[in-house]
Amino acid sequence: MKINRWFVVLIVFAMFASAFSSFPMQTFANTGKVIIHYQEAPNNTKDWNLWIWPEGGEGKAYDFTGEDAFGKVAEIEIPTNTKKVGFIVRTDTWEKDGEDRWVDIQNGEGEVWIKSGDNTVYNEPPDGEYRDLPSYENVKVTIHYARYDKNYKDWDLWVWPDGKSGQAVQFKDEDDFGKVATFELNDPQGIQKVGFIARQSINGNEWGNKELDNRYITKFKEDGSAEIWIAQGIERVFYDPSQIDLNPKIVGATIDKMNEITLQTNVPFAIVEADNSGITLEGVEIKEVIPLNKEEKTTNKVRVVTKNNLDLTKAYKISKSLFGSATVEIGAAVRSKEFDDMFYYDGNDLGNTYKKDKTSFRLWAPTATEAKLVSYKKWDSTSGTEIPLKKAERGTWTTQLKGNQDGLIYTYKVKIGDKWNEAVDPYARAVTVNGDKGVVVDLKTTNPEKWPAKKPFLKNREDAIIYELHVRDLSIDPNSGIKNKGKFLGVTEEGTRGPGGVKTGLDHIKDLGVTHVQFIPIYDYRTVDETKLNEPQYNWGYDPKNYNVPEGSYSTNPYEPKVRIKEMKQMVQSLHKNNLRVIMDVVYNHMYAVSESNFNELVPGYYFRYNEDGTLANGTGVGNDTASERKMMRKFIVDSVKYWATEYNLDGFRFDLMGIHDVETMKEVRDALNKIDPSIIVLGEGWDLNTPLPADQKANQKNANKMPGVAHFNDVIRDGLKGSVFYDEDSGFVNGKQGMEDTMKKSIAGGLQYDSSTSTYQDPEQVVTYVEAHDNHTLWDKLLLTNPNATELERKQMHKLASSMVLTSQGVSFIHAGQEFMRTKGGDHNSYKSPDSVNQLDWERRLAFNQEVEYMKGLIEIRKKYPVFRMTTASEIRQNLSFLNAPKNVVAYTLEGKNKNQLTIIHNANSNEIKMKVSSKGNLSLLVDGKKAGTKSIKKIKSDNVTVPAFSTFILEGNTFRK
Q1: Are the C-beta atoms of 574 and 507 separated by less than 8 Å?
Q2: Of the N and C termini of the chain, which has fewer Cβ atoms inside 10 Å?
Q3: Which residues contact 186 (CB under 8 A, 6 or more apart)?
Q4: What average pLDDT does range 882-891 have in this prediction?
Q5: DSSP conformation class of 453
Q6: In 10 A of CB 625, how many CB atoms?
Q7: CA distance 90 to 362
Q8: CA 13 – CA 22 distance, rounded (Å)
Q9: To which H or E segment does residue 227 belong?
Q10: Is the C-alpha dihedral spanning 233, 236, 239, 244 positive or negative?
């Protein structure tokens, strides 16, 4: 005889009803569908897409897949059991149209409408119905209803055609699932959806109790019939019974406090104080079980509070009668102060410590119950030799291998709960191709001859003139004359020439006169496949994989672990020999994905920042933020920077999205580098980002006064000069915006007088002055957007005016590679994965714009000669910089030098020439006239009147004063 499984479950539940009532109910399906309709702004020119994430999960980019009468449409399957899905309308450069929005998909599907510039999420078309929805004069509906408490007394349904009056419907039948109600509705005008509420009559009051709010049936067959399944406490409406899981079970158990576990089941159960609601915890005494909502008598989510603190290095089993058992996982407890205090390890031997006769290994994995070192014979070996690690102090695990282990390929394996995770050592200093395994190396064998070369002298950080460069961009152009194209070694080649005999590569940079070369990411990143370097691939590299290893695609042999190390050192050595310092772009603020991060594989939940609701923070806009405020993440950042500074002899670090980090971490970075070499520069993007850190702890411009010796990119002068980077057609001082004189004056003076709501710079070394970088449009491409009717000559003058103002302002000067020949990317504002044809330095253009290059060289020469452009204190600036009265759209000032020698600087942003009156005690030397620039006098001016051409800078040397 065939016995219905559901019937057996009912009998078992009835046996335990006096202690706790439970009833098997459906869980969410494995996938949910999201439909987003987006109405763009009129005349939109941006390429909008969607960033979508399940609540508590990681985000992913999705394109709009179609259009309807309202606008763009995206229809997306989300592989998760979540109740809601978050989304952002954005571009690939993370320009956003609105903030985070949410779609409810508890019914398995969510459909919303949004409009550009409007943060409201509409559940119906906001401008009126435009869809041709099916409509039925007669509908027949069957509703199956299950209650965990089996109490169906006085429960019925209130149903209605959308927009019409309702009526009561009784449950008259039952099946294995529960009670069943069938009803028909008629409306000659047509029915498109049916609303319903489950309600209970109490003491004659038909609405004495109700379950949830209005729910709707929206899917009908062609004959107008519909059948749904609903269950007590679950909002979702199910149309397919195959999606229903009839087995009660524990779906989650996490240690979220040192003495508290959050337990979640797939169906609600009754709270019974007498026996902790049937919950037991192996080897631990439970103090109490509390529903998350203390008022609830039935729930599927509780806090299990223990009498004593839990041991986070042990694996616990939690059980619930009829729901089975589950291994307790580590949750938010790893993000507590108690955890940090208990497991912080301050030693300097994390990773591998190589010696010729032995190599020691130390891994920090305090939540692991077991740990192993796995050694491999080859980079692509799928199995290796496992060596148990011994548990040591402060959550570390250790072992030691005798003999010379130079070249040993290895990973770590840790057991977290019931699961084994394998990952590359975060402290690995060498890796196999594509960075999938770590390698032990004798670093001394990676040193070039005469390593390290002596660093170029740098007296003050304000003396720096930084040149931002991508390794591949410098040499990949077929006309570069460089042999090792796209490689570290390509940067080392001297004597290279391009079209017309122009200097290229290293010779070009040296000839330009800058002091520092800043490389955008050169650590090991994820998005270039090092096994397919014969295929066209390009990426900026802002997707870290192994922080302490150079990128393999820039080496001549990524299969040999030592090659990339040695060749990067050769590059640094070559730049130092040519009087150029080296800055490395570091991206500790996020990783490519949490799920595949070695951090998260080894200590789940610790290294990343979370919102209060348990979802991953996303201030970076790429799905995750690292948590620098946690002791071991902070230690990793400081250790990593120290390693690069010493092993690779680097001269600076540019912190990507520095505003994600905390103030204390950046102070510790600065202090650590001061002990190595105080001339090392630390600069970063101090943007105010939406990450869950207290405002006074964020390492952004507003807190600059708390971080002496840490510089910030000054976006006020950047946008003030050319217009906002977020609005294509917005202009600035040099390209036509009116009323920018005061902003420019404050910026020229180092931003030290900006409003404190913007920044709190205390010293000019804290301010990076720039107008263009790898992000967003190049200045030339921006001018094409803001001034489409200008002549090429006018745009050249605007461009030179902007560069002139950067190089004559107080602070640290910053130039984007190719800015000197007015680099274009063909209008590509986010070329992070665009082809070489877009990103390469165009040496034909270098030849064509030779006059402009010479002008930039002259400006650099002037800045380096005259210390008054590089004052080192706020008091010096106040004493020696004086602004002059000037016509509209003109900024003029004097800089007082030694022996009462003065420089007068005039920036004319008008489209016509202007005249200014000056007096002098002798001849004035004109050093810059908008066409030429340099330390040699272009001509002598004896008159007390000067005429400054349109879009031009004048620099005059001599003893002058304003009448």
Answers
A1: no
A2: N
A3: 137, 138, 139
A4: 96
A5: P
A6: 28
A7: 42
A8: 6
A9: strand 225-231
A10: negative
Q: CA dist 154 to 132, 148, 781, Å?
A: 39, 16, 71
- With H, G, I as helix, E, B as strand and everything else as coil, classify residue 737: coil
Task: Note the pLDDT of residue 109.
Answer: 80
Residue 159 has pLDDT above 60, yes or no: yes
**Rounded-to-integer distance, Cα 169 and Cα 160, Å:** 10
In this structure, are residues 649 and 452 in contact, taking their beta carbons and an 8 Å threshold? yes
Residues forming the active site: 656, 685
Model confidence pLDDT, tens digit, residues 383-434? 999 999 999 999 999 999 999 999 999 999 999 988 999 999 999 999 999 9
**Length reported for the chain:** 963
Q: At residue 4, does pLDDT exceed 70?
A: no
Count Cβ neighbours within 10 Å for each residue of 495-505 and write b for 16 or more, e otherwise: ebbbbeebbbb
For 686, the 3-state DSSP assignment is coil
| pLDDT value for 245 | 67
**Nearest-angstrom CA–CA distance, 74 and 51:** 11
Closest CA to 747 of 721, 725, 723, 727: 721
DSSP letters along 845-879, please?
HHHHTHHHHHHHHHHHHHHHH-GGGG--SHHHHHH
Residue pair 698/663 in contact (Cβ under 8 Å)? The answer is: yes
* Burial group, residue 658, by CB count within 10 angstroms (0-12, 13-18, 19+): buried
The dihedral built from the CA positions of residue 856, 857, 859 and 863, taken in this order, carries a sign that is positive
Alpha-carbon distance of 323 to 269, in angstroms, equals 10
Q: How many C-beta neighbours within 10 Å does residue 681 have?
A: 25
Higher pLDDT, 674 or 595: 674
- In angstroms, rounded to a whole number, what is the distance separating the alpha carbons of residues 157 and 143? 9
Arithmetic mean of pLDDT, 125-138: 88
The per-residue b/e assignment along 714-737, b for 16 or more CB within 10 angstroms, e otherwise, is bbbbbbbbbbbbeebebbbbbbbb
State yes or no: pLDDT of 272 exceeds 90.
no
CB neighbours of 189 closer than 8 A, spacing ≥ 6? Answer: none
Q: Which residue has the tokens 């030849």?
A: 847
Mean pLDDT within 14-37: 51
Token pair belonging to 773: 């970088």
Rounded distance between C-alpha atoms, residue 564 and residue 555, angstroms = 5
